[in-house]
Amino acid sequence: MSPTKNIFRLICLLFLSLVLLQSCKLGRFVFYNFANITDHKIFPSRTVEAPETPFVFPYVQQPKSPKNITVDETEVTFDEYLSQNKTVAFLIIQNDSIQYEKYFNKYDEESIVASFSMAKSITSMLIGIAIDEGKIKSVDEPITNYIPELKENGFDIVTIKHLLQMTSGLDFNESYSNPFGHAATFYYGTNLRKAINKLQLKNKPGEKFDYTSGTTQILGLVLERALQGQTISTYLEEKIWKPIGMEFDASWSLDRKKDGLEKTFCCVNARARDFAKLGRLYLNKGNWNGQQIVSEQWVKESTRLDSSDNSAWYYQYQWWLPNENGTFYAQGILGQYIFIDPEKKLIIVRLGEKHGKIRWNKFLPEIAAAY
To answer: What positions does the domain Beta-lactamase-related occupy (predicted)?
Structure first.
């Protein structure tokens, strides 16, 4: 057989393999290769409906635009700087008014963007509400109260607080470049409950901080069990999305269509303005125009500097704390941010295709300091 025919057969075999494998983890990984902000299109999901009457941020009459940026001794506008660094949406909101709102690369205010790990902070909000409502007793409960099948793996000594603070001791490979690793299994896999049941511990809980997406996915299963039949998506809709007046429907990606579990470590798909409203909710200590959506105490515990119980001072209940100035943020892998500065009553949302060349966790506080 000629070399040309062999190559043709190999190409056909590879194509057929990809087609057959697209519905499973490895096929998804090979076909899509790496996470993208349009990944809401490739996974099944549940819709999170917006209310009929939305809350709308007004524009400030005399906006204060960010200053030009000097790059390699060349001055560029702030717009150009954002665009050059893979940004698709950028909002600055202060005192409930929009100071700056720009979209790039054919994106606009109606464009859907995947949250990635900003969903961890949203999951934390829902855990706090579930505790307020008595669906979960306390953060000190062992997670096996809700996932008893994990007792066999030694998880009876892991508490909900360990999960919230990323001190669970979970053995989890966070690498997204390994198709056989935990992260790929959780992101591209089609059975999260089964994947969770296979997890093990590598350290004693409460010994040290170790950021892993698997930790938040276990937290999601705890929440699903606590809701006793209600989906996490409908809980988000009922408790947050509709009460705070989101402008658009959102969705939460699932591992599979039938009886799917929300990917609580990632994958809330929404628009920039609605992400900003989540920031406004926590800026106002869980209160929305007089209605306490999340308890003030939960917001305080989630965003305070605390290194007790071997937690990291810069990370609490699924929120990042960049400094000692009281600011905090939700963050996604490709540079998605909801940044909150309570003292300045300021919210910044940055959504991007990649980080670009900017260290956003340093740059966003600098922008806030200028207001």
So the answer is: 85-351
Which pLDDT value is given to residue 292? 98
Contacts of 251 (CB under 8 A, 6+ apart): 40, 45, 46, 47, 48, 112, 233, 268, 269, 270
pLDDT of residue 19: 40
- Which pLDDT does position 175 carry in this prediction? 78
Distance in angstroms (rounded) separating the CA atoms of residues 78 and 161 = 40
Q: SS3 for 253? A: strand
Q: Dihedral of the CA atoms 195, 196, 200, 206 (nearest 10)?
A: 150
For helices 3-21 and 25-32, give the axis angle rounded to 10 degrees.
120
- Write down the pLDDT at residue 34: 66
**What's the confidence (pLDDT) of residue 89?**
98
CA 226, chain centre distance (Å): 21
- Angle, alpha carbons 190-194-197 (nearest 5°): 150
What are φ and ψ of residue 268, in 5° steps? -90, 125
Q: Are 370 and 65 in contact (CB under 8 A)?
A: no
Do residues 142 and 174 touch, judged by C-beta distance below 8 A? no
Report the SS3 class of residue 94.
strand
**CB neighbour list of residue 125: distance below 8 Å, 6 or more residues apart:** 240, 278, 281, 294
Q: If you write DSSP's letter for every residue of 297-339 in order, what string do you get?
A: HHHHHHHS---GGG--TTB-SS-B--SSSS-EEEEETTTEEEE
Counting as low any pLDDT under 70, the low residues of the chain are: 1-34, 177
CA distance 96 to 364: 18
For residue 281, the tally of other CB atoms under 10 A from its CB is: 21
pLDDT value of residue 2: 55
Q: At what angle do helices 118-132 and 272-283 cross, to 10 degrees?
A: 50
d(CA 251, CA 262): 10
Residue with tokens 């005399």: 62
| Angle, vertex CA 355, rays to CA 262 and CA 175, nearest 5 | 55
| Residue 71: per-residue pLDDT | 78
- 126, containing H or E segment: helix 118-132
- What confidence score (pLDDT) does residue 70 get? 81
Q: Name the CATH superfamily, with its identifier, for domain 42-369.
A: DD-peptidase/beta-lactamase superfamily (3.40.710.10)
Please say whether the beta carbons of 192 and 255 come within 8 A.
yes
